[in-house]
Amino acid sequence: MRATLVIPTLNEADGIGHTLRTFREAAEEANRSLFLGSPVEWEVLVVDGRSTDGTPEIARSLGAKVVQEPRKGYGRAYRTGFEEATGEYIATLDGDGTYPAELVPWFLLHLLHHKKDFLTGDRLTYLAPKSMTTEHRIGNFLLNLLVSVFFHSCLQGVPARILVDSQSGFWVFRRAVLPSLRLTQDGMAFSEEIKLEAMIRGLKFEEVPIHYAERWGRPKLSSWRDGLHNMMFLVRKRFQVSQETRMAHRLPVTQASTSPQGPA
Fold first, then answer.
1. pLDDT at 180 over 50
2. Residues 96 and 11: beta-carbon distance below 8 Å
């Protein structure tokens, strides 16, 4: 079995080494225990946005394949990484040490054992006081509220009927589902887009609580600017989903009126 870990980076020299070493140790241990008899061959892709602090060199020295992506954007890096990935399964996390890289193999096992298509980590249930700024917490609350209001019908297929953390970047999913997802966002809104698409398209989706740590290095997220862009995306996405729903309801009626005998 082959899987790919995709990590977007931009000047993450402080955290990328810790992230990769933690993941490698966990993956090797999992192959001796969780996946004993059927070890996972992990491909590690670091999609780098022209870092100037040595991030690519550190990643290569630790066995990662580095893909240079000159186009800006968190989502753009992921979309490029997904195109380059060769594994049957894809996992993601940030290179700043905030996500629990040691849980990636366990998430993959959970996906397989419970026959899910898409797992996402919930950072907020166990969130430590210093792991997220007040502005970031407020932004997450508002965005999660909008998701609950705008897309409540899509959440009916989710085990908890809610999405606790729409902005999480910790995912494990089957690569085969990508063609069914309409992924368009190059910025931070990609995080909410991929989850919404997974739910809208009827994938077997589950959210699992994780611990979220303080980042290594300087933060790059602009809470208010990125939050506003994400809110505007949710509004546009809601109109798009409504339009798709109306079209789907109209389609059988149109076919029946123009071709009573069905398609030739």
1. yes
2. no
Give the pLDDT of residue 170: 98
DSSP label at residue 214: P
Identify which of 59, 58, 53, 51 has the alpha carbon closest to the alpha carbon of residue 5.
59
At 176, phi and psi to the nearest 5?
-65, -20
2-133+165-218 domain in CATH 3.40.50.620? no
Angle between helices 74-84 and 190-200 in degrees, nearest 10: 60
Report pLDDT digits (tens) over 95-120.
Answer: 999 999 999 999 999 999 999 999 99
What's the pTM value of the predicted model, to 2 decimals? 0.89
Beta strand ranges found along 100-204 (DSSP E): 118-122, 171-174
Q: Would you kindly state where each structural domain of the chain is located, as residue ranges?
A: 2-133+165-218
The span from the first CA to the last CA of the chain, in angstroms, equals: 42
Single-letter code of the amino acid located at 13: A
